[in-house]
Design brief:
This protein is an alpha/beta fold. The protein has five helices and five strands; from the N terminus they run βββαβαβααα. It is globular and about 75 Å long.
Length: 185
């Protein structure tokens, strides 16, 4: 499986491509950051992020896209910018019919480091180790994008089995449901 991880942001949108399957060594295929100037108009910044992500999709042809789930922060402007960049990434994937997975920061940290409270340095160190890199990717947004891709590769088999189990249970409940009879009064 080849996954494009996206750590959304308006100024720096981290992108990273990881290939592999759970339980086997993973391979980094690319890592970088889509940058936009802080003084540019919002619409222009979103278009630049779209172009950057589209370029990554064209070049690396991932099977799916993993995006960091936006969560509440104290700074509303930061949340809005992150959410807008996240939506652009999801739109780019949807246009191509690629599945999108959303992972919370704590899920990603726990997947790559064993602790949902790991700091940026710990995540960067584990990404470096897991992908057998010489040094942690810079800036941290790039390392976070790779961590998102790793998290998804490792979690996807379990999530797929869970979805299949839910679907099977739903089918079973529809076929074995006992019809309700109306009792005359």
């Amino acid at each position: 499986m080849r996954v494009l991880g996206v750590d959304p942001g308006l100024t720096r949108c981290g992108v990273g491509v990881v290939e592999g399957v759970a339980g086997r060594p993973l391979t980094m295929r690319g890592v970088g950051v889509v940058r936009t100037p802080a003084d540019a108009e919002l619409g222009d910044r979103l278009v630049a992020i779209e172009r950057g992500i589209e370029d990554w999709l064209d070049e690396h042809r991932p099977d799916c896209v993993a995006v960091e789930r936006v969560f509440a922060q104290h700074n509303v402007r930061t949340v809005m910018g992150t959410a807008q960049a996240s939506a652009v990434a999801m739109l780019c994937a949807a246009r191509r019919g690629l599945p999108v997975a959303l992972h919370t920061p704590s899920e990603v940290k726990a997947a790559v480091s064993g602790s949902g409270r790991a700091d940026k340095a710990q995540v960067g160190a584990m990404v470096t180790r897991l992908l057998r890199l010489d040094a942690p990717p810079k800036p941290a947004d790039a390392a976070d994008a790779l961590a998102l891709a790793i998290c998804h590769i490792w979690r996807a088999p379990a999530l797929n089995r869970l979805q299949q189990a839910h679907a099977a249970a739903a089918r079973t409940s529809r076929t074995t449901a006992v019809p309700v009879r109306k009792v005359p009064r």
